[in-house]
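Figure S7 source data.
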Amino acid sequence: MGLWNYYFICKLILFWIGYIDFHVLANILFALVLIIPIKNRFLRLNRIVLGILVATTHLYYDSKLPGFQRLLSAAPSLKGFTAEYMLELVSRFINPKIVQGLFLAILVISVLGLKLRITSFVLLFMLGSHPINDILQKYNPANHSPEQENVACSDTDSTNGGAETIANLDTSDKNLDKVLAEFYADQAKISVGLESVKASPETAFDIILFHICSLAWTDIEPADIGPMFADFDVLFKKFNSGASYSGPAAIRLMRGTCGLQPHESLYTATASQCYVHDAFARAGYQTQLMLNHDGQYENFLPSLQMRERGGWVAPLLGELGARVAMKAFYGSPIYDDLDVLTRWLEQKRSSISGPVALYYNTISLHDGNKLLNQTGGSTIDTYNLRLKELITDYKKFLDVIKKTKRPTLVLFVPEHGASLHGDALQIPGMREIPSPEITIVPTGMNLVNFPGKDNWKQVVIDKPTSYTAAFTLIANLIHNNSISVPLLDRMDIAKLPTTPFLAQNEQTLIMGYGSKFFLRDPSGKWSEYKSTRR
Ligand SMILES: [Zn+2]
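Tokens for the predicted zinc ion complex:
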């Protein structure tokens, strides 16, 4: 087959390291057509041209990349990106480490090829490609991620986080559709009510929903996790945000007093008790809204404020004259988190006496943001720097609140991860597939100036949770707002609701079932989702 051998060798290597699939029959048939000896030069030339076309379509067919239709449907959301960011995204399709590895393999094989008949070996390896892959997968430590095992849901009891053995699971499309329908039916029964604080507004605590775009556990360097989250009073280790895009994730938080809803329901009105804004307003809170950006990308802000979507109808406070810290991936300014928040606190103290519930949204960590002094370079390289800055700002803001002496509950909750490393299905920064690596996010709570916090040890919630757990905790604290009861008792941690894993975007859904994850593609077909880090 001459040079064509290298095409098949590269594909086999990519298959064995988990980047692509390998359809044996189609590939062998293609190879056989290439082997047939042709004497006529014109026909030979034609075969090369046709071969290149077939090889390209075959490679796409074997790849795990989304179908052309899905790529086209994602295109409108790209049109606001700066040219610089678009270029950066395109360059991520090529993984330099893999290119180097393939080049090295080709070099070694071409040296061996001087002595051996490579074509026979390539055909043999193609025939044995799947058994070889099974052996490689068995001994691949990346396939045994313990973090994932408890977050998937089980068939028999979708509220316990999945204790069932997986050997006998029915993973047919029909059954997975049924499990999904049951999941949403169960979720529809859950709602959290908040009690009124109107009788004693002076002792009620303030609430800040600190909503962060682009931060999942997988985006953080392992060594940084401990120091970053040690000061959280409560830490949710398996909190699922349910979506991998900002818009739906924000609506999910805004409806966090009810269980998770199907993606399409997020854009039509829901029951009044599901709107967090209304729950706070009814309880006696003055609601406020602030972002560190203009909120115009993909109609983020209007969608939040729309009655039938997010329902956070409070008017936008604006950036209050804060310092610009970055330029966003779509070109507009991003304001310094600490500066915006400190200015807000000053303004609030001078103008409002009763309890306040603020929704704050930051995009400081979003992919494609440029620091003011940054020229060129990948924005992935500045992620860690921006993350450390955000956490420092967050901690400094808590110190500022501490000085006011006013009890304040801050819920630190990310929208979704940054997909910093990407996987076999999507390049770094892309989030079309709402995988657990993107939607299981580090969520925490700080109870600043709360009485009864002497000798406090961080409470870690290790079970799979989502918004209802956070709002149940808030409801418990509002309900038992009495300094005579120890704070920990007031929180009633053991009874917090668990939520089996489910995350959804417009076209794609991932559901935990048994200890595995299943992906439902836009055509409604299910397949097992395995994480493969790029
Ligand atoms: Zn976001």
